[in-house]
Amino acid sequence: MVDNKEKRNKILTWLAAGLILLTMFLIAFFSSKGAFGDPGDSAIVDEVAHIPAGYTYDKDLDFRLNPEHPPLVKALAGLPLVLNKSINGPESGWAWGAANQWEAGWYMLYNAGNDPKQILFWSRLPMMLLMVVLGIFLFKWAVELFGRKVGLVVLLLFAFYPDVIAHGRLVTTDIAAALAYVVSMYYFTKALEKKTWQAILIAALAFGVGQCLKFSAFLLFIVFGLLVLVRAGIDARENKNGYWYNLWKGFKVYFWTSLLSLIVVLAIYLPFVWKTPAVIEHQLINVNLTDDPRVEPLKNFLYHFEGNPFFRAVGHYMLGIILVIGRVGGGNNTFIMGAMSFKSIPWFFSVAWLLKTPIPIIILTFASTILLFVNYARSRKNIWTLSVILAPVIVYWTFTLKGSLDIGIRHLMPTVPFVLLFIGYTIYPVLNSVSKNLYVRASKVMIGILLVYMVISTLANYPSYISYFNEFTPREERYQRLIDSSLDWGQDLLRLKKYTDENNISDIKIDYFGGSQRLYYFPKSTEWHSENGPTTGWIAISATFYQSSKLVGEKEGKWSYGWLDNIKPTKIIGDSILVFHITDDDLIKHPPVSPYPITKVVSPATNVGLENRVGL
Questions:
Q1: Residue 122 CB neighbour total at 10 angstroms
Q2: Which of 229, 234, 468, 584 is the most buried (most CB within 10 A)?
Q3: Cα separations in angstroms, 76 against 13, 182, 395, 404, 538
Q4: Which residues lie closer than 8 Å to 565 by C-beta, 6 or more apart?
Q5: Tens digit of pLDDT for each residue in 434-454?
């Protein structure tokens, strides 16, 4: 009888989990595709490079596009496009021979005879399935650690996490990175506990696949090393063989997992570089690495790998790692809360996390941290569980804060599942307590209220999940807090199109940041840039260009959009595109004055032509 009840409860738990994940999938699906009068998300910046890359990896076995990211996510996104024989690839455009990933993307999406919405639909669908797989795995792990009640709470927090939904719908690598961290950590900890060859092989396979999802998985080499040190101390107390003996056993697990994972990486790379011409590989090395004399020995070293497919897989993998290191170290124009920098802002991610993280998660995280110090875990099991949960968060945040790539809160995505597991760790004693004292009952009520609040808040933000901010930021002020992929990645051009059609606006100037093409949707529009200076009439400006123009304008002595700061936008489309209708009276009431000497003046009537600006 007890077994039947347990079996029934297990089935009901998984049914509940399935319903939560189905709801998450449907929210992601319809907010991306469009429904209920909303046209859906237009292409975002990175999809321009990722979609043609994945398509050609699968169809041509050629890795010339987007070498700075590993292949698996893009190849998965490209698979439905290859199976759909009506899709035309980028190979017939000039950008293919030049290995120009951005121009190849513009061509495939908007100039090769394809329907951009069809391409986005089919390439984004596998990404949503990856998001669901991550949810399943996180739920499975949480149940193993803390039981079914906590597992469902962790899953609910995950499924209604706006940033997860936002980036789980896009052809990008951020959700895949989180999946890489969760799966690799899960199986490596199993290998450290069991120390069997079977467990090591599974861990190596998981870690190898993880490294081919996103290069940030490389930090797991450090995380795994720290866990070896912790596990050696725990095992020394359990089996009495001494710390150094157990450290050596753990190190062997680490060594073989790491070595075999690299073999998996190269096996995955091999088919995708199989038909990449040696001359193209040479071109990629030469173009992507600088002409600095100090870099020449590195370039010459990589040239030795370009001729043979087997060696090319090794060289291409190393090239990708080098490009990522250079990208992180090089930095990016950064904006947050009015502060701007050409490289990075040290407190960017800390403040961005507070702005973009749902209030229930913030409350539960801070409460969990306080409880951790108040009720310090002294048992060996708890120390190990906490080490597994917190090590990736600590290591990842340390390197993120030291890095210079402050362009989006999405870069913290690999830590999100572990933060949720940390919350699960601290609520476990409460949810499983049979006590009826006031503290336990009040805690359960509070957890319930926070869960309901999070669900309602997430649904209320539909369909604007890229631009989600928690309730501490008024919606009309979001563009004054963050830009780029934390707010404005180009997702709202179709919504701008809907607004202009409904309001019969045909003569409009547009300064658009994103992965869509202005002329494709607005053939009668005029391309506009901040340096053109003040103007009248209808003008639509992406928040990223609106704010970054003030940094670039000051440096280059050109007009920025600062002259619009005292004029209220007529409409903010999807929180990311500012629409103004400027009249002569507006310019009289708020005379445009540049805060710095203007060294270049461009006539407002000048049509500057089509430029594919894809970054700050």
A1: 19
A2: 468
A3: 30, 19, 29, 29, 41
A4: none
A5: 888 888 899 999 999 999 999
CA dihedral (460, 463, 466, 472) in degrees, to 10, reads -20
End-to-end CA distance of the chain: 64
Over the stretch 340-357, which tens digit does the pLDDT of each residue have? 888 788 899 999 999 999
DSSP state of 568: -
Question: CA-CA distance, 590 to 593, in Å (whole number)?
Answer: 9
Q: Is 546 exposed, middle or buried (0-12, 13-18, 19+ CB in 10 A)?
A: buried
CA 415 to each of CA 171, 216, 309, 334, 390: distance values in angstroms, whole numbers, following the listed order: 20, 11, 35, 22, 9
Closest by alpha carbon to 431, among 417, 453, 418, 450? 450
| SS3 of 494-528 | HHHHHHHHHCCCCCEEEECCCCCCHHHHCCCCEEC
Q: Are 61 and 271 a contacting pair, CB within 8 Å?
A: yes
Q: Count H helices and E strands in the chain, helices first.
A: 24, 7
Burial 350-377 (b: 16+ CB within 10 A, else e): eebbebbbbebbeebbebbeeeeeeeee
pTM reported for the whole predicted model: 0.93
User: What confidence tens digit (pLDDT) does each residue in 516-559 have?
Assistant: 999 999 999 999 999 999 999 999 999 999 999 998 888 888 99
Q: How is residue 475 annotated by DSSP?
A: G
